[in-house]
Amino acid sequence: MSVVNYGSKRIVVGAHYGLRDWLCQRVTAALMALFTLVLLARLIFSKGPIGYHQWAGIFHSQWMKSLTFAIIVALAWHAWVGVRDILMDYIHPVGLRLVLQVGALVWLVGCAGWGIQVLWRL
User: Fold this and answer.
1) By the 8 A CB rule, do 97 and 88 touch?
2) Is 90 a known ligand-binding residue?
3) Which domain of life is it from (predicted)?
4) Binding residue per annotation — 60?
């Protein structure tokens, strides 16, 4: 009995995290969409001109700061999964991909840290 091998064995490389990354992207996107609706509702039902004091008033309550903190983390995580998958799919030299991933991660952590710092200073 002879075994016939059609083609070579498929090697899966790149963004192969599957369901976990897919679910992460969907959950974080849903959270950001919900936050956008809450923020729009707060803006629509607020009185007076929209200026610094109006924005500071929206984010003054503890529940809004906590929700915004969670959304900043979700946004950073959402962006990281997307950027990582793109880099894994399209940047083949491992050293270059590692440098770009570290750069993207540092940038995202810096932006999230800055956003949280601005939020808690209000």
Assistant:
1) yes
2) yes
3) Bacteria
4) no
d(C-alpha 38, C-alpha 111), whole Å:
22
Q: What is the pTM of this model?
A: 0.79
Question: Does domain 19-121 match CATH 1.10.10.1020?
Answer: no
Residue 41 and residue 82: Cα distance in Å, rounded?
A: 29
The enclosing H or E element of 23 equals helix 19-44
Q: Helices 62-90 and 19-44: crossing angle, nearest 10°? A: 140
Q: What is the rounded CA–CA span in Å between residue 40 and residue 31?
A: 14
Long-range contacts formed by 49-58: CB under 8 A, 24+ apart: 55/122, 56/122
Question: Domain locations in the chain?
Answer: 19-121
Tell me the per-residue pLDDT of 38-86, one tens digit each, with 9 for 90 and over.
999 988 888 888 888 888 888 899 999 999 999 999 999 999 999 999 9
One DSSP character per residue, 45-67 reads T--S--SHHHHHHHTTSHHHHHH
Q: What is the DSSP annotation of 96-108?
A: HHHHHHHHHHHHH
